[in-house]
Specification:
FAD/NAD(P)-binding domain; 3 domains; five-stranded parallel β-sheet
Length: 466
């Protein structure tokens, strides 16, 4: 307990705000081993219960102390197929690390940073040719076919567990690159796309088949997959990628983006490159509406593509911001400015239809609402105008209606999310679902947990044990 938590080296703010390179640089071997030595190896590790996929945390950390990094990775892979991703984007501070015994008196063990170190160490050795990759595998002849719809964290995790169980798995992705929100939603400086690609390629070597540009509901319906294409089961992990808007005047002006569109253009379609085929408006004064992780991603991305001033405008106070503390800290270091207790009421443009300004009103906090946060209440006569030429709306997402419209016997709730039992079984036989399409927007690791539970249900049902 005398060893302090080891800080992770980072790019300086004044440098990183001008590039898309990853901000945290990762642990060295020495830092990782020293951090791992802080683990008390509890007999009843509460950190494991705090992990949605129940990684054997003390065991893999012990392997790090022993310098057996490959052994540590094998322990993680026993329950988590995407360790390099989870080590970067999971909110460990509210999950595994929250329950670390050391957190009761000080700083918890940096579980996420250690997971990232292990995955990166082995991947780098593979890239250098110091370690041979596992030979490609294929499902046994006659293995049941399972279709995965959506290649985000829920779909990838479900696919990985089904591959481990010997199933023939095909993943259908609507976009031209697999990865879902991992590639279109999370910026390069927070999650490099090469890492996502490496994790997916590891699944391909194990037999995963991927079909891109495949919009289920158009190319095939769910019934087509079950009845005509011969799949024994279908898992739906399409996420909640339909953006919500503010529903205020002027929202259709040029220069007003949903965060989904803005980040997809930059992350997946590389609109920031001079020879990119997809354009993007590079505003000098940018306002981002919302205060979650997506809002932080959009604001920090806007800086990197040339904005001189970027504002986060949020209708509640700093205490109610849902973004991770680390993301808020990084945004502030890079120069993002925060305006609290303000709410947009209209956008204004010029005669050519381009955004020029936003009108906001001041707010004050009233009684708590259903979320437990204090409800924002407008202050009459407090309107003010702010000149901007790009607005990014990051106030949440909802489910895409395509699958529910083409699968009438699939039960959904009042918000359009698929209804399932605790193991991901839907109202439709042989159809399962998990992740944001069931819960609404949540974390990567929670979606992975849902994918794991659904895989267990699929295996159990197809073996006649469900």
């Amino acid at each position: 307990m005398a060893i302090p938590r080891q800080p992770m080296p980072e790019q300086p703010p004044e440098v990183r705000r001008h590039n898309f390179d990853e901000v945290p640089l990762g642990y060295t071997e020495e830092l990782a081993i020293r951090e791992a030595q802080r683990c008390l190896q509890c007999k009843k590790p509460a950190c494991v219960d705090g992990c949605p996929v129940n990684v054997a945390i003390p065991q893999f950390i012990e392997k790090i102390v022993e310098r057996d990094f490959e052994g540590a990775l094998q322990i993680i892979l026993g329950t988590n197929s995407l360790p390099a991703i989870c080590g970067r984007v999971c909110p460990q501070e509210t999950q595994c690390e929250k329950y670390c015994v050391l957190a009761k008196r000080g700083d918890p063990v940096a579980i996420g940073r250690l997971e990232r170190f292990v995955a990166d160490h082995v991947r780098i050795r593979l890239m250098r040719g110091e370690k041979a990759p596992l030979p490609p595998t294929a499902p046994p002849p006659g293995a049941p076919k399972v279709a995965i719809v959506g290649s985000g964290p829920a779909g990838l995790t479900c696919a990985a567990d089904l591959l481990n169980a010997g199933y023939n798995v095909t993943l259908f992705e609507a976009l031209h690159e697999p990865g879902g929100v991992l590639v279109y939603g999370i910026p390069e400086f927070r999650l490099p796309k090469a890492i996502v690609k490496a994790e997916i390629q590891a699944l391909v070597r194990r037999g995963l088949q991927i079909v891109t540009n495949a919009v289920i509901g158009r190319l095939y319906t769910i019934d087509d997959l079950l009845n005509e294409e011969g799949y024994a089961a279908v898992f739906i992990g399409t996420g909640a990628g339909t953006p919500k808007f503010l529903k205020i005047p002027g929202e259709n002006l040029n220069g007003v983006y949903s965060a989904n569109e803005f980040l997809t253009r930059v992350n997946l379609m590389k609109a920031y490159l001079p020879d990119a085929e997809t354009p993007i408006v590079r505003g000098k004064r940018v306002a981002v509406f919302g205060a979650g992780n997506t809002a932080m991603d959009a604001a920090r991305t806007a800086l990197r593509i040339g904005a001189e001033e970027v504002y986060i405008m949020y209708r509640r106070s700093r205490a109610e911001m849902p973004a991770r503390a680390e993301e808020i800290h990084h945004a502030e270091e890079e120069g993002v400015k925060f305006e609290f207790l303000v709410n947009p009421v209209a956008f204004y443009g010029n005669e050519r239809g381009w955004l020029q300004s936003v009108r906001c009103e001041r707010m004050q906090l009233g009684e708590p609402d259903d979320s437990g946060r204090r409800r924002p209440v407008r202050i009459a006569g407090s309107e003010f105008d702010t000149p901007i030429n790009v607005a990014i709306v990051a106030v949440g997402t909802e489910s895409n209606p395509l699958i529910r419209q083409t699968t009438p016997d699939l039960q959904v709730n009042q918000w359009g999310y698929i209804v399932t039992d605790d193991m991901g079984r839907t109202s439709k036989p042989r159809v399962y679902a998990g992740g944001d399409i069931v819960t609404g927007a949540a974390t990567v690791i929670e979606a992975m947990g849902a994918g794991k539970r659904a895989a267990r249900a699929i295996i159990s049902d197809l073996q006649g044990k469900g």
